[in-house]
Structures are given as C-alpha cells and as structure tokens.
Amino acid sequence: MRYSMTFVSDDYEKLTAHLFGDSSVEQAAYLLCGISQTQSEVRFLVRTVVLVSPDTLKEQSDKHLSISSSSFVPVLKQAADRQECFFLVHSHPPGFEDFSSQDDLEEPKLFRTAYIRVGSGIHGSLVFSGRDTLSGRVWIDDGDELRPIPLNLIRIIGRRYEFLIPENGPAPQTVMPKRFFDRQIRAFGKDLQRLLENLHIGVVGCGGTGSAVIEQLARLGIGQMTIVDHDKVEDTNISRIHGSGLYDEGRSKVQVMEDMIKQIGFGTRVHVIEKKVIYESVARELRNCDLIFGCTDDQAGRMVLNELSIHYYIPLIDMGVMLDSHLGYLRSVLGRVTIVRPKANCLLCRQWIRMDLVAAELMVAELREQRVKEGYAPELEEKDPAVVSFTTAVATQSVMEMLHLITGYMGEDRDVRDILWRLDSTAYSFRPVPNSEGCSCTTYKKVGRGDRRQFLGMLFMAEPECEV
Predict the structure, then answer these.
(1) How many helices (H) and strands (E) does the chain have?
(2) Are 76 and 117 in contact (CB under 8 A)?
(3) For 349-374, how does the pLDDT look when each residue is reduced to its tens digit (9 = 90+)?
C-alpha cells in the first residue's frame, strides 16, 4: 500500500511561509484532509491548513516545541464533524530532516487521542526542515498499538505540478533502460525522466486524440497508464487511430492501445478498462491517476471526469476538435485544450459541458428517442467529420501542456487554462477564465472532498453485467 498527500499550491505556500517565517524557532500547524482509499494507494487531500499561534504553545525554541491540548482539541472536533483526517505539522532546523526521538515518543499519545476523538479516518504527521525538504508518516491503528508507516509522495498542484519524495520515504522505482531516452534526457534532464517513469496517467477515450496521446505518453516513458474506452474499432476510424490497422476492425480500442504500448516495449504498465467512464466502477479506478487526459466526445463522460478532478485534486487536460465542413468544403478547424486544476474553474462553468446534453446522453436510448419526439430532450449530434492530422495536432498540444505543467518550460509565469487553436489559420487564442460564481467547483462542499458515501455526489447509471 502506498501513502501520499496532495496539496493545492496556495495551501502549501501558506503552510511553509508560516513554518519558516521565523526560522529562529520551531513552528507548528495542523492539516485537515479528505481521503481517497483504493486497493493500491491511500491519498490525503489537504483541505484546510490551521496555523498554530505561538500563544498556544507551552514551549518554543530552535530545537523544541510543546503544544497545549487547548490548541489541537478544537481541530480534532472539526475533523470529527467533517469526517476528515488530522495531520500534525512542525518544523525542524535545517539539517534535521527526519522525526526526532522526542517526536517518536510524543506522537503516539497525540494520535491515540485523535483516533478516539475523530473516530474514523487515518491520521499522521509531517516534519519540515526546508520548503522542499520534509518527512511524513501515518499512524495506523492496529487496535493494540499505533504503527508508523512512511509517506511515499507529496504532490503540489497549482500553475505547476510538483512532486516531492519525503526524506524517510522509499526511493521511487526506475526500471526503464535510460538509453532509450537519451535525447529526451538531454532536453529535460534525468530527474524528469525518473518522474515520468513514476507517473500514473489516465486516458479516457481511444479515438483520434486519445490514441495519439497514448502513443506519445508511452514514448515519453510514462510508467503506468489506465486506458478507458467501451468502443470497438470501426472501418471509418482506422484512418486516425494510432496503432491500428485494417486487421483491427471489430477489436476493442483498449486492446489495440495495449498492443501498441507493448510493441513499443519500454515497459509501461497498462490497465485497460473496456467500459464507459459513466459507470461508477470505472470512475473509481481513475482515482489512482496523477493526471487524466479527457479524450472523449460525450458530455456525460466529461462531467464525470470534471467531478473527479474537483473531488480528488487530479489535474484534468480535456480536449476536442471541431471541423466545420459543408458539401466537402472545409470552412474551419478549431482545436481546444482545457486544463482543469483544483480550486479553479471547471469545465461546467467554462461552458464546455451542457447539462441538457448530459441528461440526454444518460437516458435509456428508447426513452430519449421518445422525449426528443415530444420536444423535451435535445437531439444528440451526429458523428462529426475528423482528420488524423488535426486530431494528432491537438493531442500533441495537450501532451506539451502536461510537460509544461511539470517542468515550466513555457515560462514560469504562464497560466493558460483554455487554448483555442484555429488550425486552418494556425492562430492561437487564450480564452479568458470566466467567473466561477454560482458554480460548485470552488466550494468546500466538493473541493478535495475525496471519498464520500455517495461517490462524487452523483447518481451513476446501472452497469450492465456484460456490454455488447
């Protein structure tokens, strides 16, 4: 089991500014977190940072601090009321990266109290000796005693996407032969290659854009991918699905993608899901991803990915291509790449999702057809024209945006979230970010909420036992 923590960058900066604002003494804070628990990973999603005021400390020096129970008991009550996880954070002097023997002695007492008062969740602690230097652990309640387990990873999501390995955590795995990535390493360095190999990326949709994204991710050396598509290869889409051929007609798209990745041979681990993302079991699988590419044309699928991004702090790169053609005359080609990140505008308030179309797509086919005739539901669009050159170009732009997100190679001040690209005139425009007022994407009710009784707060379609 892997344990990790995800911060929104503003919260991380607030925390570290407090811890090191006065470096002459140790400082403390508390974190309240949502939680995501899967079979392979437990993620703590930081929702609230509570700074500990010096007047609530019993003792404070450059090498020691002691906190009064009057400081943390109200925070434990808040965690219990919200059903959130509790973390204690404090600073150490530079050079003391790990937990001290005093920490090892005192923390079990605090976290025994936390388990009694909060009553649920998993709780833990962090110690910082610098802005990017820390150790972390969770205290697992085995009934008779508390057992510490190191945190494996810290994610920080904002304009950039940072990954920190705790000093006490296990080193990331590297198994891909570096000779294959020599030219890439010359561009970005060994650290980025090591990071790519340890990323888990989700791709939803294996058509023109999705297949191009998948091939580029595999050739970049991404360590693990989860690929989702319920459809099979048709004769009309072989012309733009990367890795496909005439012999693939009738095969599932995800299997064609898996074969392509295996043929590339870099060792990317692949988990394929031949179902629709609008099923709850599929959406739950995507919680393990570090980032998701939305390469689906359907509005209901986009809605699910949008909610996943909000609830679980998973950056989403959504894309689309629209060709305006009449009687074989191509009048315009518009490509779009949209980046959704925590505590920022979502696809809904940017009007890339229409709720009437979501509702129509989720209707049973017979019922929807009847309601269209009655005028109570919109007619869903027919299949649009598509050309491999355009879908591949937009897919490439989206992968470049991912690389910028984790490297900043386009400039540290760049904060673009909606890219509109007129491929017929090679003109870019950056759509202004709209006001999110009235949208729930920035409310505490959703942001970083993680697992809840009703997954994503949504009602999902009943999943058939076997899809045809």
Answers:
(1) 12, 19
(2) yes
(3) 888 988 888 887 777 544 555 555 55
Q: Could you tell me the two tokens for 220?
A: 């970049």
Confidence band for 417, pLDDT divided at 50, 70 and 90 = confident
Rounded CA separation 350/433 (Å): 7
- Would you state the structure tokens that stand for residue 291, as one six-digit string? 């980032």
* Euclidean distance between CA atoms 287 and 280, whole angstroms: 11
pLDDT at residue 466 greater than cutoff 60 = no
Helix ranges (H only) for 83-207 are 101-118, 182-188, 190-197
E-only strand ranges, 152-285:
153-157, 161-164, 200-204, 224-228, 269-273
**Could you tell me how far CA 142 lies from the centroid of its own chain?**
30
Helices of type H across 221-354: 253-264, 280-285, 299-312
The percentage of the chain sitting over the pLDDT mark of 70, rounded to a whole number, equals: 94
How far is the C-alpha of 333 from the C-alpha of 322, rounded, in Å? 6
Spatial CB neighbours of 24, under 8 Å, sequence gap ≥ 6: 62
Per DSSP, helices labelled H in 63-159 are: 69-82, 101-118
Of 3, 6, 2, the closest CA to residue 291 belongs to: 6
